[in-house]
Amino acid sequence: MKLDCLPTLFFLLVTVSFSLPIQADDVSPDNPQEVQDLRYGVVLYHFFQQSYFEALTEVMVGEMRSDLPYHQRSAKLLRGGMSLSYGMSHEAEAIFSELLTTLDQQADKDRAWFYLGKLYYLRGEKDQARAVFSRIAGHLSLPLEHEKIFLVANIQLANGALDDAETTIASLPASSPWLAYYYFNRGSGQTLSGHWRDGVNSFQKVGALKIGDDEIAALRDKAYTASGFARLGGAEYELAIADLKKVRLESPLVEQALLGYGWAAAQQNDFEKALSPWQMLSKRSLMSASVQESLLAIPYAYEKLGAQGSALLEYQRAVAVFDQELIKLDEAIQVFIDLPLVEVIAADAGLGADWIMGRDYLPINRQAPYLSHLVAQDYFQMAVKDLSDLTKMRQYLSDSATRIAAMETVLDTQNHLWNEKLNQSQREQYRQRYTQLVATRSRLQALKTSAAKDRSGFMYLSEPQSELWDIVSHAETIAEKLLSTNHDVSEAYEQLQLYRGLLIWQAAEQESERRWMVDKELVEVDTLLVDTRQYLQRLEGLSERRYDDQFAGRIAELTSRLLIQQQSVELAIAASEKGIRELAIVELENQQLRLSFYIGQAKLAVARLYDLGSEEGPQ
């Protein structure tokens, strides 16, 4: 089996992605400053709660209502950063371009230049990004400065200016996580351009960094796997094995590492050593392409070891397993055809931290692992996140429709109140209500006073408990009469005594709770009395006025806009769901093609072994 293409194939499959979070670096929990605008405080609260959609909404409302006189520019910078993180590049570009014409403070200008440069970088416009970054005058916060250094170095790498990139990245401290990403990107570029030894050196630098971070640990696994495959393609088999053995067992890349480990040993004709990682790999999930390949690699090794019978059995086993997997893939395709993606994704938060923190999405069901390779792709993550946000947007619009309906109800009620004569019968209804509340308060107060004298709790018995007490008392009277006439009901009488005791115990136990409830009812009645008295006073002094319907036109306009937006979101959801479904189905069909190819290889091997005739029995 040819291995010349392995390094290139690996780098096409294993790429590094990183999140570029926005930052409110003018105000942070570690660097508190005075907030002079109430709405800006609300914006920051939502921001630090990672409720970015709510923060963005508050900024836009504040701009519309001019509620940000002291923090207008800071809020606009924050809005631009959040818009950029949400992928609204044109909106962000317009915001930053506008800000750069109005900002006075150099620190604010630098932040705007940084976000604008990052916007160009993410859009692939590297030359513009480099030009914008060059205008930053050195007043960025430390996290943004480190990120800028990394982005500039990456641009220089992409342009082939390795020496300039090295000079730029040298400004980062040894503890910066951006170094790991830089070395990995440098190694990927070097390997893909044919300088695999230089690439290996870069990957080794990632492994040597002393940064205890889960994300860096995952990147370190990628670096060791990449280095191992590069050395495998360069015929440095022992060194390749050493790198591949450093990949953590819990890493998502462990299956590729085990497969590469086996091929490195096989290239040294040490097929017994190759069998160990391949056999371990063959016990893992068959949904992985590496595991599937191991099922063909094992009989290949047996053939090389002269165990023709064992090879034949393993090839036959592979055919049977692949046939079963094809059936499961057919089922998976049908599942994803019918899967209600909107319902699955709507259960997620959406429109929140996922955009900023880069959390992955995967519809959870039995067939989901078949899509593990697809889910690792940025375009799939973007598609799923778009659908997630659209479903959340649908919910926001639905909530808005509810609020508008409530406002219409309020206006209708107000209209009714202002246009209907408040006649005597209406006032009489409130007077009667007030009288009833006074009577209720008197009853509760009398109950509380009586109960204070009798601490047994019997004064607080509920109606069902009182009925039970009467039933028990009556039954005891009957039992006593029967006992006096020599009827043997002693056992029943004892049960009644026990039940009486239980009722007494319950009354005593519940006395404090019932007393608290009576006190609570008294407070509520007093509150209602005050409210009713005030309302009666307002009714008495209310004169007729004409209803002002100045809000009716605005509500009608909002209703019309809302309907248009809802229709637009529904169309976008349908298109997004269709796109994701097609991506999943194409991925599953590609897996079917791969399995069919493997089946063909295995069957050809079986036929070849039959033709040659096996001199060894099954082992």
Write the topology of this structure.
Blueprint: H1 6-13, H2 38-48, H3 52-65, H4 72-85, H5 89-99, H6 106-122, H7 126-133, H8 142-158, H9 162-169, H10 178-192, H11 196-208, H12 214-233, H13 237-244, H14 254-267, H15 271-282, H16 289-304, H17 308-338, H18 341-346, H19 353-357, H20 372-375, H21 378-419, H22 424-453, H23 463-484, H24 490-541, H25 550-612
* Shape designation: extended
- Biggest beta-sheet profile: none
Percent helix: over 70%
Number of strands: 0
Question: Roughly what fraction of the amino acids lie in strands?
Answer: under 5%
Radius of gyration based on Cα positions: 38 Å
Mean pLDDT: 80
Terminal CA distance reads 25 Å
Number of helices: 25
Task: Give the structural class.
Answer: mainly alpha
Unreliable stretches? 1-29, 349-362, 543-547, 614-619
* H and E string: HHHHHHHHHHHHHHHHHHHHHHHHH
Structure description:
The protein has 619 residues and is mostly helical. The protein contains 25 helices and no strands. The radius of gyration is 38 Å and the shape is extended. The N terminus and C terminus are likely disordered.
Features:
74% helix; mainly alpha; 619 residues; disordered C terminus; 25 helices; disordered N terminus
How would you sum up this structure in a few lines?
74% of the residues lie in helices and 0% in strands. The chain is an all-alpha fold and 619 residues long. Helix 10 (178-192) runs antiparallel to helix 11, helix 10 runs parallel beside helix 12 and helix 17 (308-338) runs antiparallel to helix 25 (550-612).
